[in-house]
Write a structure and sequence with these properties.
The complex is a heterodimer of chains A (115) and B (111). By secondary structure, chain A is an all-beta fold. Helices cover 0% and strands 51% of the residues of chain A. In chain A, the strands form 2 sheets. In chain A, strands 2, 4, 5, 6, 9, 10 and 11 form a 7-stranded mixed beta sheet that branches. A 4-stranded antiparallel beta sheet of chain A has the order 1-3-8-7, with no helix packed on it. In chain A, a hairpin with a 5-residue loop joins strand 5 and strand 6 (57-58). In chain B, strand 3 (31-38) and strand 4 (45-50) form a beta hairpin. In chain B, the strands form 2 sheets. Chain B has a 5-stranded mixed beta sheet with strand order 1-9-8-3-4, with no helix packed on it. The chains are: A mainly beta (115), B mainly beta (111). At the A-B interface, strand 4, strand 5, strand 9 and strand 10 of A face strand 3 and strand 4 of B.
Chain lengths: 115, 111
């Protein structure tokens, strides 16, 4: 089955620094990837849709300058949390769907802790 | 996007069948119903998907009535390892079509 790899699985950083999270589709091409954020004991909240070769589409209330998304190739999307603050601490998850496949494949998630 | 409503939590015992019903009253004609399972600190995992009637795979069954305004995920003979959060999602199959998660159902399987 299709695999989506997410890296790193966890990261601890100081307030004010930027953190980059990578999401790769290992055995298929993904023209579209999705980024979610999940707080403890809550559901996944869609942050943005990452489109290969074009700008990401952000959900209402998500700051595009805060959460930079780059989808430079058909197998890689990155999410950069800029100038991270403690309130950005969360579990970030990416997903991708192969064209013609009904399933949405998820990465294993990245736990971000901002001190 | 079609909104889904699920019970917040359910308790069960090993070996029992667990049925989780999801309401999606405003499901669109092109929408499919997909269920995912999520363990703590992991990404969701696909369980099953259907459009109408009944779908069965090696881990679960999905029952969808004719009006498609609800669906029921059935987990036969659960084990402790089935303790997880189960999400019902409704959306179009198109690759670029986003899926929005509802609250999910937290299933606790007891020994």
């Amino acid at each position: 089955g299709a695999v989506v790899s997410q890296h790193p699985s966890w990261v601890i950083c100081k307030s004010g620094t930027s953190v980059k999270i990578e999401c790769r589709s290992l055995d298929f091409q993904a023209t579209t990837m999705f980024w979610y954020r999940q707080f403890p004991k809550q559901s996944l909240m869609l942050m943005a849709t990452s489109n290969e070769g074009s700008k990401a589409t952000y959900e209402q209330g998500v700051e595009k300058d805060k959460f930079l998304i780059n989808h430079a190739s058909l197998t890689l999307s990155t999410l950069t949390v800029t100038s991270a603050h403690p309130e950005d601490s969360s579990f970030y998850i990416c997903s991708a769907r192969r064209t013609g496949n009904e399933k949405l494949f998820f990465g294993s998630g990245t736990q971000l802790s901002v001190l | 996007l079609a909104k889904t409503t699920q019970p917040i939590s359910m308790d069960s015992y090993e070996g029992q069948e667990v049925n989780i019903t999801c309401s999606h009253n405003n499901i669109a004609t092109n929408d499919y119903i997909t269920w995912y399972q999520q363990f703590p600190s992991q990404g969701p995992r696909f369980i099953i998907q259907g459009y109408k009637t009944k779908v069965t795979n090696e881990v679960a069954s999905l029952f969808i009535p004719a009006d498609r305004k609800s669906s029921t995920l059935s987990l036969p003979r659960v084990s402790l390892s089935d303790t997880a959060v189960y999400y019902c999602l409704v959306g179009d199959k198109a690759a670029g079509n986003k899926l929005t998660f509802g609250g999910g159902t937290r299933v606790l399987v007891k020994p």
